[in-house]
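Task 17 of the worksheet. Students: predict the tertiary structure of the chain below and write it out as structure tokens. Keep your answer in the requested format; marks are given for formatting as well as content.
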Amino acid sequence: MKQTTNSILMIRPVAFRMNEQTAVNNYYQKVLDGLLPATVNAKAQQEFDTFVEKLRAVGVDVTVVDDTLDPDTPDSIFPNNWISFHQNGDVALYPMFAENRRNERREEILDLLEEKGFEINNIVDYTSAEEDGFFLEGTGSLLLDRANSKAYCALSPRADEELFIEFCEDFDYAPVIFEAFQTVGSERKLIYHTNVMMCLGETFAVICSDCIDDKKERKMVLDNLKENNKEVITISEDQVNNFVGNMLEVRGADDKRYLIMSAAAHQSLTAEQIEKLEKHAEILSSSLDTIEACGGGSARCMMAEIFLPRV
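Model answer:
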């Protein structure tokens, strides 16, 4: 199984703004005072377009789908939470915590991918769990080590343990389960998505091990990564706040590996971390300041990796 892909799905926003329904447990979101909604959306579109341009310039195959004004989906720019694509032609659809995010699931996106020559054999649909109040938000909640058939998941209101185990059974992954926390005011609160504090590359892993408060769990997660010969590069909680954990390794032209991140993430890496990362992949960054502030997500969340076979 491949760990990285050259093909990415991205959704261009039309009414991007801070989503009040996700802010209840995404503590990375901020209100940008004094900016009109239209201005926020225009800035987000500009950041999105520049980002796509940079990816395409190095040979990443980006499928861009425009969002629609109706229904209202302020977070549609983060498609990796509702869908994942797999090498055997399976597509998984995920149950979403915020009601207005459930409208992001659009069947015509699958039709479009098939028109582009991707093969979809089977849809595994977990969305009925929403009715019972259980959620698992795609590769935000699940970090897939596809090559080693392991899935990492930090449990949270958006990542249910039983659902995660069900996913692992369906897709043949060994589950690695833990809890990750961030400091909010004077409290330690669960981090809403695993991919904020951790990134898995082919030959490396970036992780904020300080977020895993339980020492046994922390050791277990690090042991799992080392067992698969990943170079573990640790980051600080302050760096997590700058979305350093929210990165993705992709392949460009000639199968070259790139590590994609935001400008804010890139700027908050130390020289030593950059040196370690660049042994594995070339860093490619783009400014996503508006998207990060209002959306509480960054580069990784904006890219749904397409591993589907080609017809």
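Marker's comment: DSSP finds nine helices and 17 strands in the chain. Residues 37-57 form the longest helix (21 residues).
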